[in-house]
Design goal:
Chains A, B: Its EC number is 1.1.2.4. Chains A, B: One of its GO terms (molecular function) is D-lactate dehydrogenase (NAD+) activity. Two copies of one chain form a homodimer. Chain A has 17 helices and 19 strands. Chain A has 459 residues and is of the alpha+beta class. Chain A folds into three domains: 86 residues, Uridine Diphospho-n-acetylenolpyruvylglucosamine Reductase, domain 2; 117 residues, 2-Layer Sandwich (Uridine Diphospho-n-acetylenolpyruvylglucosamine Reductase, domain 3), CATH 3.30.465; 190 residues, FAD-linked oxidase, cap domain/gating helix (Vanillyl-alcohol Oxidase, Chain A, domain 3), CATH 3.40.462. In chain A, strand 18 and strand 19 form a beta hairpin. In chain A, helix 9 packs across helix 11, helix 9 packs antiparallel against helix 14 and helix 14 packs antiparallel against helix 15. The first copy, chain A, is globular. At the A-B interface, strand 9, helix 8, helix 11, helix 16 and helix 17 of A face strand 9, helix 8, helix 11, helix 16 and helix 17 of B.
Chain lengths: 459, 459
């Protein structure tokens, strides 16, 4: 259903040139990073204030127009596709850092601030925002998908680092959740409810984030292992030993090959761990030595330490470029990306089973992972339009998810549900899906907020 | 309204002697730790399984009987009072540690396990559960009130340490929330929603908790300060310096006097900080030295180190006994206990303003606090039945809450809302109260779950 003319008129009156129905603008906001596709939205809005978001949603609510929030468009599960048509609300013009309260280690920002922009702004304060999903995503989008990434093992996820929100509800009501205090027991944890709600309950228009002190000393390294099992077992042993890793990332041989081809590195084309330590010079030295001893027990060799900031930046740029590097292994391919997370003791078996399944399929599917959390990904490369490959990739992804659920894990550690993981939600949540549906119906009774996402059979 | 006869018959048939309407049992479950009072409940049930809780709630739901969860009865805001009559569901017979998965640093327990019982069970594993509100509370109750306490500055609150729950909803439906993975982005954070919901959305029947490694080295000390301002400013400076405190507790002169009288200690009767460091021998030594230097800058003197486990236990037993020790300052008194939490930079002003207000009132009101989180309490001693004192104490409490809200803090850092903080909820949450009410109505449409608590004007 296209947007009714009175709604279009009201939006144009409100936003002027910041409301568009042009094919170019719609197409730009109909893209997805992965194999998920949908027709473009009917229109795009670029509000610049909470008040404009509120009025935009009030108009959409009155006319039954679906509303889809948009940040940098880097989500991997089609979260921002306009599967039911409607209006994409692009929040990237709301990109101001509103206040940095260094003495409280907090920042208040608009949702269109990206994590790199925030950290640039924070550089002189001695503080930083640690959550790092790789892409230079908008912090509003990261909150909406409960993102995490390479540093969650040390600093937690968006759940742990968002203190308070301003949210515009479906009917345009503006609420504030949370406080600036370190903790609160005053009522339901609405901040936690909106973080990870994927735009299905409201649009985030302001975030108060917890900042962390820039570590005095940082050391990063990459280290090779003879076998995948040994690399992953080293991770489990490291976490169980309590070494406070800032990062501990797994890269399989296929991904190492992708880095070599794409980034010009010279890794041996087998499994690796990429690690980082944060602390004082003494603790970093101590932690790195303990890790080195453990890694040697599992056959780890060829430690390559990145000692300068430039070398470290290059190392993590390589890791952050993994998605594009792996895509380049098969020119023209798109990807089905998996994202299971399992309890630490089940990680070696989960990775081994996934590797065996991928190998049996004949697909190219490099694996990387934030393995310190028990979270790993395979990026299954398929050609667009090849139904057989798509079915094979989806079968692998589903089996990985089922194995994760069988050991108490989750179908998505950090990417979120979007359209991709929707069919697996009942298997994970059982009767609790009814509670999620009741909350959705209570807060968005007409179902305009990002319909077709997250909850099965809702819209 | 008393419990209808058919409901009583059904509950008696289900639970036998574990359902009681005796005056003695009702009176035991009509108590409160503080000045809040209400008539006793109409009946008490002691289920021993999730299935019994489910059937109990289904009966209550069918007959419109209010249901109030009960743990150790140590909450401070009248959370478990039967203000609307009905059935108290005492969960203390569900007290089994179901599974300890040491390799994943997790335990699954029933809600009636107390924190001390769990830590006794964990002793041989090298792990412990850190959240420590002082009272030997049940972990189900601690989750329901989003409790924290002395160690939250290092290990977080119940929000951070509950991974998954089993919950029985108002109509008897049993759901599971969360996973055993370290993180998940699969749908709304229902675990976070039920933690801190104070029994208003369901009854928690199982918890999966995050455990932590027992620190290799522990050092505790108490240290005096010339003035309250200097003690509190030392806390702010300590937190801002990034020293990883395991505990940093404030005790004012009145509370020190209470300890001396009640516990036979010999503290100078002025402000103190009680601190603890966890880590390796090297890091503990380093942290303690850095703190010692900072404390000296603020006039801290007379460091008394508790070096043996017995001395440390005595130190924290003293702190944990603060509530009873302070009550004993005025024999026969009851207490209005405040619980604000403010951003760290506002802590010195908040404590100073509270102290001035208490002094002006003429009431005895010792102050203690988990000041590393910006959270502090005054325990305002009043005689039961003295309306003038009650009004004065409530006035102080309300002004403390208003000052906390004015700087972005919260009316309750860890005690929860119960009946006591209910009148302040609108001031804290504004329009977000409507979202809480919508969630409550969606999950408990007949309003049987702990009516009269948390949300204003709901029941």
């Amino acid at each position: 259903m296209p947007i009714p003319a009175p709604a279009q008129d009201a939006l144009a009156a409100l936003l002027g040139a910041r409301f568009s129905t042009s094919v170019a603008d719609r197409d730009l906001h109909g893209q997805s990073e992965t194999f998920h596709t949908a027709p473009p939205p009917d229109a795009v809005a670029w509000p610049v204030s909470t008040d404009e978001v509120s009025k935009t949603l009030a108009i959409c609510h009155a006319h039954g127009v679906p509303v889809i929030g948009w940040g940098t468009g880097t989500s991997l599960e089609g979260h921002a596709l306009a599967t039911h048509g409607g209006l994409v609300v692009d929040l990237m013009k709301m990109d101001r850092v509103l206040e940095v309260r260094a003495e409280d280690m907090q920042a208040s920002i608009q949702p269109g601030v990206t994590r790199e922009a925030l950290n640039t702004e924070l550089r002189a304060t001695g503080l930083f925002f640690p959550v790092d999903p790789g892409a230079n995503a908008s912090l509003g989008g990261m909150a909406a998908t409960r993102a995490s990434g390479t540093t969650a093992v040390r600093y937690g996820t968006m759940r742990d680092n968002v203190l308070a929100l301003e949210v515009v509800l479906a009917d345009g009501t503006v609420i504030r959740t949370g406080t600036r205090a370190a903790k609160s027991s005053a009522g339901y944890d609405l901040t936690g409810l909106f973080v990870g709600s994927e735009g299905t309950l409201g649009i985030i228009t302001e975030l108060t984030l917890r900042l962390h002190g820039q570590p005095e000393e940082v050391a990063s390294a990459v280290c090779g292992f003879p076998t995948l099992d040994q690399a992953v077992e080293c991770v489990t042993a490291t976490i169980q030993s309590g070494i406070p890793m800032a990062r501990i990332e797994f890269v399989d041989g296929e991904a190492a090959r992708a880095f070599n081809q794409y980034a010009g590195t010279h890794l041996h084309e087998g499994p690796h761990l990429m690690v980082e330590f944060h602390g004082s010079p003494a603790t970093v030295k101590d932690d790195a030595e303990r890790f080195g001893e453990l890694a040697a027990d599992f056959g780890g060799t060829g430690f390559d330490w990145a000692t300068t900031p430039e070398d470290r930046a290059a190392l993590w740029r390589m890791r952050h470029g993994a998605y594009r590097a792996c895509l380049a292994l098969r020119p023209g391919a798109t990807a089905v990306v998996t994202d299971v997370c399992v309890p630490m003791s089940h990680l070696p078996a989960a990775v081994a089973a996934a590797a065996a399944d991928i190998k049996a399929s004949g697909l190219v599917g490099p694996m990387v992972g934030h393995v310190g959390d028990g979270n790993f990904h395979s990026q299954l490369l398929i050609m667009p339009g090849n139904a057989e490959e798509l079915a094979a990739a989806k079968g692998i992804a589903t089996r990985m998810a089922e194995r994760a659920l069988a050991v108490g894990g989750t179908i998505t550690g950090e990417h979120g549900v979007g359209v991709g993981k929707r069919p697996l939600m009942r298997a994970q949540h059982g009767a609790a899906i009814g509670v999620m549906a009741a909350i959705k119906a209570a807060l968005d009774p007409t179902g305009i907020m990002n319909p077709g996402k997250m909850l099965p059979d809702m819209n």
